[in-house]
Design brief:
The chain is an alpha/beta fold. It is 34% helix and 21% strand.
């Protein structure tokens, strides 16, 4: 038998009103090759940008034809044309900026990780609630073609009851693109695998137990972990695993995912990991048990195309009065998995993530 080719819905849509004034804080690489190209494709309104390095802000403004370069954060926050502040700074700088922006009445799209410290993440979420403003987190892998299409298939019942989920990445990651991470005490889980953990939460909900093991490659220049294995256990028997190696010297990149259930299987590749950051389109295949896998055609790139997803969700929230899909409050549960992974690796035991806030 041949499984019919499904047609999952996976392309994010903007709300009817999407001309909110957006200002950028932080004009580094990710803003220039991901955020702004996605916003330009969808003709969003970029009012201005700011960076503590004036040359970086001027370069971004010139490259992306942004009309205004702010000389200070205070000047940006005082601009009545700005409704949404898109923050793209290192995690340890985010809380102070977020709290000032919320106090100025702005809605926020925050970079991931929302914070390296759970207390800071909780404080940002609470500040948004006090200000009655929405805070979304840029966990944009949820809107990458492969994950978004998988989510639609899983929710339609295509694989039945989920039983197993596997994400495997083995690549030579260009850490030189982020020199400030070289001496960080946290690397893969906090800044990379957080995407996979968040996507697994998106697909399957919150696990009740987590076990993680971390290692380094011999002679690596980075201080922290670059090889990790993390297992998530769910009460219904579902088990999910994330296995990552950032120093695959073979250069034969592998970046795959498999989601199995009682009725079928989804299998695919994470295109952005092949020649990052240029990447390629994700691939996806599906079969009912007993049938051959059939390819499901996908379009777009994780970078930059998925970056419209969190912004579109934030705009939907502003219009409908409902939380963004990747709200700050929701993202705390993702950070619990991240911190649970570090505690598990440090203590050599399985962790219940929901105990980290107690």
């Amino acid at each position: 038998m041949h499984t019919p080719i499904p047609t999952p819905t996976y392309i994010p849509t903007l709300p009817p009103i999407h001309d909110y004034g957006i200002a950028i804080v932080g004009c580094g690489g990710i803003v220039n090759y991901a955020h702004l190209p996605a916003y330009r494709t969808h003709q969003l309104t970029i009012v201005g940008c700011y960076d503590r390095d004036p040359a970086a802000a001027a370069h971004t403004a010139a490259t992306h034809r942004i009309g205004r370069v702010y000389t200070s954060l205070a000047e940006l926050l005082a601009d009545p044309a700005v409704t949404i502040v898109d923050i793209a700074v290192p995690a340890w700088e985010q809380r102070a900026i977020a709290e000032q922006a919320l106090a100025a009445g702005k809605h926020l799209l925050c970079q991931k990780p929302l914070a390296e410290d759970l207390a800071d993440a909780i404080a940002i979420a609470a500040a948004g609630e006090r200000a009655q403003r929405y805070v979304a987190v840029n966990q944009q892998m949820r809107w990458s073609a492969g994950i978004a299409a998988s989510a639609d298939l899983i929710r339609s019942g295509a694989i039945g009851q989920p039983t197993d989920a596997q994400i495997w990445v083995s690549a030579e990651t260009p850490w030189h693109m982020w020199p400030w991470l070289r001496d960080s005490d946290h690397l893969d889980v906090m800044y990379h695998s957080i995407h996979y953990l968040d996507s697994l939460r998106h697909l399957f909900g919150n696990p009740t137990a987590l076990t993680s093991r971390h290692a380094r490659y011999p002679g690596q220049p980075e201080r922290a972990e670059t090889k990790t294995i993390t297992i998530l256990d769910y009460p219904d028997g579902l088990q999910a695993s994330v296995m990552v190696n950032h120093h695959d010297a073979s250069r034969a990149t592998a970046a795959t995912f498999r989601f199995l259930g009682t009725a079928g299987i989804i299998s695919g590749t994470i295109g952005s990991m092949y020649d990052y950051p240029h990447g390629r389109t994700d691939t996806l295949a599906y079969a009912r048990h007993g049938d051959e896998l059939v390819d499901i055609p996908l379009t777009g790139l994780w970078i930059p195309d998925a970056f419209i997803g969190p912004m579109a969700s934030l705009m939907h929230a502003i219009q409908t009065g409902t939380d963004p899909i990747t709200s700050a409050r929701d993202n705390i549960a993702t950070l619990q998995l991240v911190h649970g992974a570090y505690r598990s690796a440090h203590e050599g035991r399985t962790i219940a993530p929901d105990t980290l806030l107690s």
